[in-house]
Amino acid sequence: MQKSYALFFREAAQALLETMDPDLRERAAQIGGMNTAYIGTARDIHLDEAFEALIVNSAAELFGKAGKRRALFVVGEAGSGKTTAVEKHILKRREFAPRTAADGTEYLPLIPMDAPKPLTVKGLAKEGLKAIGYEVNNPRLLATDLFELWKDQLRERRVLFLAIDELQHVLRGDTVKELQTVADVIKSLLEIPGWPLHLILSGVPELAGFLDQSGRSNRQLKERSKVIELRRMTFPEDIPVMTKIVNKVVAVEAGLKPDTAILREEFVHRLLHASSGAFGSMIQTTRHACEIALRRESATLGVDAFASAYALESGCRPSQNIFNAGDDWKDILPSNSLQELVVEGRNMPQKRKKEGK
């Protein structure tokens, strides 16, 4: 029997909440609500269409045969918001809600899970069985046995859709053989006899390139798949929409007044650059800045809060802070934010030696 860790956490968090001052409780409620809000954009139109197509295709089997493109790849860089977007589109669809079968058995038409790291056939099967609540107590079961058991349980528990996140671990295989094995596994899930399972697979953009790998299984997998990319935000094309989103997060979600400086084109460009164009990261940094302003009991959100948020998130020195740097801020690479600290740390033993410490 699986433990209800979610219940354990709520009990522990509630006990923590009861020890906090009233103003801290109010701030916790505000931050919780702010981080729960979902920011929709034009890309959600494409996701809506893709999810609807999966649902309709699954039901089409009742009237003949479902189309063979039953795998949806949602790809985007880290921080692009792909996990949040997929979760949102799963939650909004009543077709994925829990059901009760004719015999009274409750079941979930869609099962979400994270790909294990490292990704192996045995690890994927064990994680898949765990996601549907099936305990595996025999450590001697082979990968093929576990995989067949998983497929049997997917049918037994009436699972029509399987959502696997963080599938980029497939790209870290040591050999071409390992990559090909995972391709065969995904294709096998799409070919369960009498059970047209639909897959929602998310990961980094290189995952789409995986479909172009040579090999018969990969070609067949490509023929069974659709791909949606949650692309990087770019300057100047996305500045207008990101300005509106910053304003919404600050004014609507956090209830703060945005300083005019943070709604200017150059500032939003800095935010885009600091986030490497990652949509989700831009929103997270904005919310983090709002949290800092709330802690400081400031009614207005200004550049200083963003600079503080970025410093905490990146660990950068003041000279590398994109939000309060001079005109050369575009030359600062977010990926090198810790460079000064790392270099100083490497030189410290020699410096101490020279000083005789």
Automatic annotation (TrEMBL):
SUPFAM superfamilies per UniProt: P-loop containing nucleoside triphosphate hydrolases (SSF52540)
Protein name, per record: ATP-binding protein
Keyword ATP-binding: yes
Single Gene Ontology MF annotation: ATP binding
Coiled-coil ranges per UniProt: none
ORC1/DEAH AAA+ ATPase domain sequence ranges: 68-209
Listed InterPro entries: AAA_22, P-loop_NTPase
One Pfam family of this chain: AAA_22
Keywords, alphabetical: ATP-binding, Nucleotide-binding
